[in-house]
Amino acid sequence: MGRRRTRQSASVRGHGSRPGGRSHIACIPPEGGASGSESNGWGNGFRHWFAAVAAAPVVWLAAATLWPDAVHWGAVLDEGWRDVWRLFLLAGLYPAAEEVVFRGVIQGWMLDRPWGGRRLGLVSRANVLTSLAFALLHVPSHPPLMAALVFFPSLVFGHARERTGGLAWPAGLHCWYNAGWFWIFGAG
Predict the structure, then answer these.
(1) Does pTM top 0.85 for this prediction?
(2) Is residue 28 part of a domain?
(3) Is 137 within the bounds of a domain?
(4) What tens-digit pLDDT sequence spans the chain (188 residues)?
(5) How far apart are CA 109 and CA 156, in angstroms?
(6) What is the model's pLDDT at position 43?
(7) How far apart are CA 65 and CA 125, in angstroms?
């Protein structure tokens, strides 16, 4: 018989074989299969999902408190339908496309490497490196501090990708984070 996997290690085991028998990180339920609350890929129900969703308003409030002059409630929609399109791009299309590139292609490629799945504390090396690249992408369009802070939600998106093995959860979180951010702080 094989070695019995623990609940903790099962959440980072791979699915989908690669040549040589290795696989990339994704969620495989603990032995005995998925049941009820564990079938969503997050293990232990939606605990991680709810924490990630609930964290966003806390961060928005903290940022609004730290930088009150930057708050422009709803300003992203000041100019009518043209701005509805702009909000769709900023909170829908762009984050979804970024997730395909960063979590799907880059992080996926790194997870397929033997070193990519190794953990640095709570996150994989692939997640940390992908998040660094993601933060660097934001340098041209954000002030330096804001671009650097993008690293932290990127870790959350990467965690969602690794826990579920797909892109729907990280893309949904990214859209949620951007929608709230641009609603409060505008797109200026």
Answers:
(1) no
(2) no
(3) yes
(4) 444 333 333 334 343 333 443 334 443 333 333 333 444 555 554 788 889 999 999 999 999 999 899 898 877 677 777 778 888 999 999 999 999 999 999 999 999 999 999 998 889 999 999 999 999 999 998 889 989 999 999 999 999 999 889 999 999 999 999 999 988 988 76
(5) 18
(6) 56
(7) 33
Task: Please name the helix (run of DSSP H) or strand (run of DSSP E) that holds residue 94, with its range, or none.
Answer: helix 94-99
- Give just the sign of the alpha carbon dihedral 73, 78, 84, 86: negative
Assign 120 to helix, strand or coil: strand
Q: 57 is in which domain, residue-wise?
A: 47-185
Number of domains into which the chain is organized = 1
**Position 75 in a domain:** yes
- Name 49's bridge partners: none
Distance CA 27, CA 186 (A): 36
Torsion of CA 157, 159, 160, 163, to 10 degrees: 160
Give the integer Cα–Cα distance in Å for 71 and 65: 9
Element (H, E) at 119: strand 119-120
Angle between helices 81-88 and 168-185 (to 10 degrees): 140
Query: Is 169 within a domain?
Result: yes
Q: Measure the CA–CA gap between 148 and 136, rounded to whole angstroms.
A: 8
For tokens 């992908």, the residue is: 130
